Amino acid sequence: MYRVFEALDELVTIVEEARGVPMTSSCVVPRGDALELLDDIREALPTEVDDAQDVLDKRDEIVQTARTEADTAISNANEQAERTVSEANAEAERLVSEARARAEQLVTDAQAEAERTVSAGQAEYHDLTERARTESERMVQAGRDAYDRSVEEGRAEQARLVAQTEVVQAAHGEASRIVDEAHAEADKQRGDCDAYVDGKLAEFSELLSTTLRTVDSGRNHLRGSGSYNGSGGSGYNGSGSGSYTSGAGGRGFYDFQSH
């Protein structure tokens, strides 16, 4: 490529130094030297010039081929993108469906567990109440029996003492003491019975409150995770309080209020 520029420089020098023709802008150039330099230039031109000409000649074909390949690549890319988006949507729907099914299963399990816990608590409540009532009736009956025995013993002793004229006054005093002791014993047993029943019912009230707090905690956990919105479901929600009231004759009842 260097020879091309060198020959062009020499050709320019020949033209610049050529003798001019009077009255014209022409000049006399040594034909032989000029042709020799032009031959050198022709021979020195690289074959890349011919290749470049071939490229220019085939430009339209190359551009069309490139456009076709570009359109094909774009079409393939669009198809791949659509296929990828479709697969992603299908996978997302599958994951959402599985998550929804899992959430529904968890809610169902939680409801079943809550119902089982409440049912167990109610059964325990009825059992404890029945046992407390039975024990209360037994202790009240025992108190009554003791009271009756004491009264009968007092009356018998009173009758015996009354039969003895010399100790009539002493008999009255002893009879009164025995009767008072019988009343005191009956009152003591009645109070013990009430305290026993109240203690048992207090224990059960604590157990039931703990159970209900556990159920509420599970439900709040489900609401906090966003999996269960509470619609269409069933369960037990509330807090309980109760009080024991002593009735006539030593019997009592427990009033349980649910809120």
The number of strands is 4
Inertia-based shape: rod-shaped
Instruction: State the secondary-structure class.
Output: mainly alpha
Q: What is the H/E order?
A: HEEHHHHEE
The profile of the biggest β sheet is: 2 strands, antiparallel
Please estimate the helix content: over 70%
Structural domains: how many: 2
Radius of gyration: 59 Å
* Unreliably modeled segments: 228-259
How many individual helices?
5
Strand order of the largest sheet: 1-2
Cα end-to-end separation: 103 Å
**Average pLDDT value?**
79
Taken as a percent bin, the fraction of beta residues is 5-15%
Features:
rod-shaped; cell cycle; cell division; Cell division septum initiation protein DivIVA; coiled coil; disordered C terminus; mainly alpha
How would you describe this structure to a colleague?
The chain is mainly α and 259 residues long. It has 2 domains: 49 residues, no CATH class; 134 residues, no CATH class. It is 79% helix and 7% strand. It has 5 helices and 4 strands; from the N terminus they run αββααααββ. The strands form 2 sheets. The chain has a two-stranded antiparallel ribbon. The protein has a two-stranded antiparallel ribbon with strand order 3-4. A hairpin with a 5-residue loop joins β3 and β4. The chain is rod-shaped. The two termini are 103 Å apart. The C terminus is likely disordered. One of its GO terms (biological process) is cell division. Keywords: Cell cycle, Cell division, Coiled coil. It comes from Prauserella sediminis. This is Cell division septum initiation protein DivIVA.
